[in-house]
Structure formats: C-alpha cells, structure tokens
Amino acid sequence: MASTPGSHFSESSNTQKAEGSSPSQATNFPQILCSVLLNEKLRNLVPFLVRKYQKKEQTTMEEMLHIVSHDYCEHFLLNYKKFCESLSLGLGIEIRLVDPSEYIYDLVPILGLTYNGILDDDEQIIPKVDLLIYILSVIFINGNSVSVEELRKQVRSWEILVLRERVVIGDPWKFITEDLVREQYLMYRQVLNSGPASYEFLWGPRAHTETTQMKVLEHVAKLNNTDPRSYPHLYEWALREENTIVRVPERQDV
C-alpha cells in the first residue's frame, strides 16, 4: 500500500514521451506502512485520528495513548516519529505539535483531501484512502485522464500489493465507479469522438477543489524518496496549474 504508480508509467502527455525518470513503485514505504499503520495494537488509533482530522479537531498525546493498547504504549512512544511519518505518507495527514506543555497536536492536511463521504467503515479507512491517492496519481501521471482499461490494470496491480499485506477493500472497482464518482473525486465520461465508444476517468471537481497536481506530485516524490523536479514534465504541468489558479483577494471593509 501507499503505492505509487508502477515503473512502467512514463511521463507523457497523451502519446508524447517525456524525458527524465518516471514515478516508480516505492520500495521501502509499503513495509513501513504494514508494520506501523496496520499494526494490530494501533488498529483503533488510525480511525480515531482520521475522524478527528475530518472534524478539524485537535488531539493530545494523552488521547492517543488512551486509544493504543495498554501493553503497547511504551513501544508507541519510542516509535512515535515513525508512526507520524507513516501517517503522513500513507494518509496525507501530518501530526503537528502546537502546545508542547500540554502535548496538543493539530492534524494538518498535506494533500488537502478531506475524505468526507467515502470512509463509512473504520476497517476500510487505510485501503480506501490509499486507493484514492493512488488513482489521483495515476490520472495525473497519464496526462490528466486515464482509460477504463488502463485504470483496471492499475487497480489489479494495486490489489496484488494490498493482498500481500492482508488488507481487503471489498470491491475496489465499485468503490471507484460509485463512491468516488458520486462524491466527485472522479469524473467518468465518454472519450470525445471515440468509436466504438470508449470511456475515461479524470479528476472530479472535488479533487480539484481539495488538492492540486503539485501536492500530488510532491506526495509521489516523497514516497519514492526523490524531488518533484526529478519528473520534469510532470513538474511543469503541476507548476502551470499552480500559476493558473485564480486567487480572489480578500474583501477589505472600508
């Protein structure tokens, strides 16, 4: 899990191949995720923090230790930094200390994704978030759209990875075509002038509202332990999008 699109992807705009390296499967992080976020002793902590994050509530170390299995508290404190790194890379959520005296923490969105409306089952939080981030990355890397056939192939690759970690999401394709489309994280449409008719997926309006191509690229780069500029064409696309975002100035009362 916490996968990035496979190494067979090259940076391309439709059929144009880009120079430079392409995002490849992260090699180290899946093991970290498996041993940390999927640890049985922490099974209730991740859903607890995600719900706090969605409500924009703070948390405390006392709360976290209360959720963690009693016999695991000392180990959790010793490995707290690794847990925070895993939460950041796996779910796009940063735990940021804001009050050292009381050990109060903010849950900060790195990707900007809220996940509201798609996480109805605590047991499915990690794989569903991972799949959403994965698909948004696949679409971006493929030139902002991906065919149904290509996405099916990528989802099958993703399923193989998560099954190795004994994580089950139920029906991933139903989650994609129903939940993610309904919640407008994805858009599903017929390719213009295609005959016979073919279909593709794009980022939906909600994905464009909550995150940006640059944030997704930075996330992919972190998973692969590299710099976003290592993917020059993707970086150029993301930078172009950043520059076209209209920033409406705040109204000033006179």
Automatic annotation (TrEMBL):
GO terms for biological process: negative regulation of transcription by RNA polymerase II. GO terms for cellular component: nucleus. Residues 38-238 form the MAGE domain. It comes from the Eukaryota. PROSITE patterns: MAGE. Signal peptide: none annotated. PANTHER family: MELANOMA-ASSOCIATED ANTIGEN 10, MELANOMA-ASSOCIATED ANTIGEN MAGE ANTIGEN. This is Melanoma-associated antigen 11. It comes from Heterocephalus glaber.
